[in-house]
Amino acid sequence: MSNTKYIIGSFADPDDLMHGIEKLQANNISIYDCYTPMPIHGIEAKLGVRPSRLPIAAFCFGALGATLGFSLLYYTMAYDWPMNIGGKPSLPLPNFVPVTFECTILLCALGMVATFFFRNHLFPGRAPRVMDLRATDDRFILAVDARENTDHALVDRLLKEAGAVEVKYNERKYVSYE
Amino acid sequence: MGTHNHHHDYNFSEQYTFAGTAKVVSLVAVVLGVATIAYGLSTGDTTRTFANLLLMGYYFACVCAAGAFFIALQMVTQSGWSVGMLRIPQAMASVLPIAAIVLFVIAAAGLNTHTLYHHWADPELLDTNSPKYDPIIAGKSAFLNVPAFLIRQILFMGSYSIFAFIIAKLSYKEDLEGGLNSYKRSFKLSAIFLVIFGFTTPIWSFDTIMSLEAHWFSTMFGWYNFAAMWVSGIAAIVVILVLLKKAGYMAWVNENHLHDLGKLMFGFSIFWTYVWFAQFMLIWYSNIPEETVYFYKRWEPEYKPWFWLSIVINFLAPLLILVDRDAKRKQNIMLFVAILLLCGHWLDYYIMVMPGTVEADRHFGLIEIGTAIGFAGLFTFLVMNKISKHALVPKHHPFLDESLNHQI
């Protein structure tokens, strides 16, 4: 038993990568993940990636923003110090719409960015970890979990048949930019 | 790069046959409409009939103009996703000249019979010796007088029609000749058209609709009308597209394209609300009598339920139904929302037109429904007839491949 954790297939062409995914799937080899320097149409559907749950976070942050914005308006304008402005009621709902709306958008946007950073382990000062350095440059990376798929020779052969220019046996999951 | 280039064998010469039920129903609707108008005029409901004619004539012209705007916008932004369905807005644009003539005849006849635009189109209002003298209207008469009104109608709708017709024609020519000449020419024409259209549609709506209540004015009115036009235009495209797909045509248009149309419909419904609300809130808050008169009339008991219903249909319904990604990708949901929005913007125009024409003598009955059905039939007949004359896809369009591989 080797110490290989992940087998990395490095492709120079996205078509070959897609071909590689098909080949591995046809042989019942589970794919850990793919890393590409640009978006590839249809790759999520092919890998069976579940839709992002970011919209749920967006909704929650938006609802929070609306509540906070409206509460601030209500407290200052209608509860703490009601004022007669232009003969309007002290709780003029139409006037509260723009501010409430803006607070919704603000918290929704900031919250989505924060969620995205948190989920992807990205924040200032942290060196990003990637499975292959060239995945952000010119290579299309297909990673296979070597512990789950024990027939390494088969994986190697299939990746090369599909057009992988390089197959690596990584003993560590991530390489770092550090 | 052909990552996702599944090999398809589409028949790009496929043509729609306009016959059978679709043709019969649209012609019956036209006959019904004509009968309703004849009934309305003969029973003495002249003002009400003309108000409905103006409403539907304007709606008809707006939806066709939105078709022209759609193709020009796709051309100028060099969009590829929409190429597969471009023949639908092109057909709408080709019908614009007819819609323009219809609206012009209605407006001119309304002026002539004093049933429309009576708030300003009366020489006595300008006569200082007359008891009816109105200094506000007299002050606006340099802009708002009958010859200038008619000339502007001809200039605006005439220029839209010419551009719409030529841009659509160039695409039909491209089918026969191929090459990039048609594309390059229509790119230039589209850019010029968008500039003209953008600057003149607000004035066109000031003239056609806002001047019905000539004492009142709102600088937001033009954009408000543009938003209504654009949403209803996209909704009309969706209805035609889904019905064509259900009839087995246009296999190359899939849920990805529908999703994009859904986003446009969703987004511009919210834009409509934004403009509507901006106009409403500023007037409500500043509370100046000469401005609030517009909403005062629409908050009288005879209009108030319609006023709020319009917000529910045109804002809440698309917001809640289309916010989900999957909803925008389902034909039946999109068809339902598109039809709902078409009805909703009829109601929107109804609220704009009626208080300035029939005033408090508001009705909703045979004449409203009959006229709407008549114009819907006319629109369906003319547009589907136009669609049936050409292949259902511009097969030599330079971005056709992008549209076929579109995925979101």
TrEMBL record, chain B:
Sequence intervals crossing the membrane: 21-41, 53-76, 88-111, 149-168, 189-206, 226-244, 264-285, 305-323, 335-352, 364-384
Signal peptide per UniProt: none
Coiled-coil regions, chain positions: none
Keywords tagged on the record: Membrane, Transmembrane, Transmembrane helix
PANTHER family: PTHR43044, QUINOL:CYTOCHROME C OXIDOREDUCTASE QUINONE-BINDING SUBUNIT 2 (PTHR43044:SF1)
Name of protein: Quinol:cytochrome C oxidoreductase
Organism for this UniProt entry: Sphingobacterium thermophilum
